Amino acid sequence: MIRVLLVDDQPLLRSGFRALLDVEDDIEVVAEAADGEDGLALAKEHLPDIVLIDIQMPVMDGIEATRRIAADPTLSEVHVVILTNYGLDEHVFHALRAGAAGFLVKDIVPEDLLHAIRVAARGDALLAPSITRKLINRYVTEPLHTAANRRLQGLTNRERETVALLARGLSNDQIAERMVISPLTAKTHINRAMAKLHARDRAQLVVLAYESGLVAPRDR
Question: 4-aspartylphosphate (modified residue): where (predicted)?
Answer without folding.
Answer: 54
